[in-house]
Write a structure and sequence with these properties.
Layout: H1 8-18, E1 48-52, H2 62-76, E2 80-84, H3 91-113, H4 118-136, E3 144-147, H5 150-163, E4 167-169, H6 175-181, H7 190-205, E5 208-211, H8 217-222, E6 230-232, E7 250-255, H9 264-272, E8 281-286, H10 292-301, E9 307-311, H11 316-321, E10 325-327, H12 337-344, E11 348-352, H13 357-360, E12 368-370, H14 375-387, H15 389-406, H16 409-421
Parallel strand pairs: 1-2, 1-3, 3-4, 4-5, 5-6, 7-8, 7-10, 8-9, 10-11, 11-12
Helix pairs in contact: 1-7, 2-16, 3-4, 4-5, 5-7, 9-14, 12-15
């Protein structure tokens, strides 16, 4: 394995943080490539497209689902698509090169700064080996390279100084800001400085940023993104709902990872305020995660006997076919897949004003939106749907109609195809 390479911008930010004088002169800026032309109206040319992610693919979760959906969409209309991810690396790269690079990074930090940060050591080692892996690939063959996270865009931004291809970037979240918000990174730490620099450099090297929701715009501009190099294309999905099954009780469902940011605790609090209205209501909590035991205990303390924890399930379309109301009380989200699936499944949707949700659910038209953490608003919205079948049906119909018109993977693929074609 070639010895560890620390990119100049990351070295500079660590030197600055630890107060080490710079003893090197290298350019820290990356150039974006690809000139936009006014696309003609003729039949789109077949393209060779590469998607790159620094996370595992295929995998569970929104990012992997997005790549699969867009890959399938482009292949169906005649384009060639490849995906590269770290789990495609060789066993030698994964089992030998990464620990070796980590050892080099650890020694480097200790010798230069007298201190080692294991999160940075881990990231530097993975960046280094994944970059070596990508260098082995013939990236020159692709018409379009489209990165799906900040680490992939950082690496590709450097490699693309040679290839000079149209390099697009779709962020699916904000790594540093999200980790600061949930205390996984401390304000003013070396980790904040390091990962912020990673995001800034990647954004700088992007030809164009394709956002999954317009709510990403302010955060991206904080990292230096230019307004005229950002386009919103809402995520679309291929979701096959199961025909609705009749049942006696009203069923309220929440399908989501049981993590602090998904707001299940607020949902349980809101339900506890509606006890007299819940005699014919079943609440199905679907998903698994770190909050499971705490939430089960909370439901028990609040005497919510009608709340059932299903755990992780693989029959979501079937579960949603029996459900009437869908609630996601999230406090930090981007463009949640589960809400889209609920809309396709003709649910009366209740969610929050987080991230791109208001771009997906129009308040008082295709669903009801509450302020994150506002238990009173949440309780009021749930009461409204469980006590009024007409309201429930009207919102469910509107949600399904909107999803079928605007949130399919075909609509998403066509819009992204138009962007790609302008760079050919």
């Amino acid at each position: 394995m070639p010895s560890l390479n620390i990119h100049p911008s990351l070295l500079a930010i660590m030197d600055q943080y630890y107060g080490v004088a710079r003893d090197y002169e290298e350019s820290l800026t990356l150039q974006p490539f690809g000139q936009k032309t006014r696309g003609d109206d003729s039949k789109p040319k077949p393209m060779k497209i590469l998607y790159v992610t620094f996370f595992q693919y295929p995998h569970t979760g929104g990012l992997s689902h997005y790549i699969t959906s867009i890959k399938k969409g482009f292949e169906e209309i005649g384009h060639s698509v490849d995906v590269l991810a770290p789990n495609h690396m060789t066993s030698e790269q994964l089992d030998e090169w990464i620990p070796q690079a980590a050892s080099e990074a650890r020694n480097f930090m200790l010798n230069r700064y007298g201190i080692v940060n294991e999160k940075i050591v881990k990231n530097l080692s993975y960046l280094h080996v994944f970059e070596l892996f990508l260098k082995e690939k013939n990236l020159q063959q692709y018409d379009i390279i489209h990165s799906q996270d900040l680490f992939a865009i950082f690496i590709l931004g450097h490699l693309n100084q040679t290839y000079q291809k149209p390099l697009l970037f779709t962020p699916h979240g904000f790594f540093t800001k999200s980790r600061l918000k949930f205390d996984k990174i401390q304000k003013g730490s070396i980790e904040e400085a390091y990962f912020t620099e990673l995001e800034k450099v990647g954004i700088e090297a992007s030809t164009e940023i394709v956002m999954i929701a317009d709510s990403f715009r302010p955060n991206l501009m904080d990292f230096g993104a230019k307004d005229d190099r950002m386009t919103t294309v809402h995520t679309g999905i291929d979701f096959k709902p199961v025909p609705h099954k009749n049942h006696e009780n009203i069923i309220l469902t929440c399908v989501s990872r049981l993590s602090p940011r998904k707001g299940h605790g607020f949902l349980l609090e809101a339900l506890s305020k509606l006890r007299e209205h819940l005699t014919n209501v079943e609440v199905w909590i679907v998903g698994d995660g770190v909050m499971k035991e705490k939430l089960m205990e909370q439901a028990k303390e609040l005497k919510l006997n009608n709340v059932i924890f299903f755990g992780k399930r693989h029959d979501i379309p079937s579960i949603l076919s029996m459900s009437d109301i869908y609630v996601l009380a999230t406090v930090n989200d981007n463009f949640p897949l589960s809400v889209m699936e609920a809309m396709f499944s003709r649910q009366a949707v209740i969610s929050t004003t987080c991230g791109g949700i208001p771009e997906m659910v129009q308040h008082e038209e295709t669903g009801i939106l509450c302020e994150p953490g506002n238990i009173e608003q949440l309780a009021h919205a749930i009461k409204r749907f469980i006590t009024n079948k007409e309201e429930r049906d009207r919102f469910a119909d509107a949600a399904e109609t909107y999803a079928r018109k605007h949130l399919t993977s075909q609509v998403m693929t066509r819009k992204i195809e138009q962007i790609y074609q302008t760079y050919l």
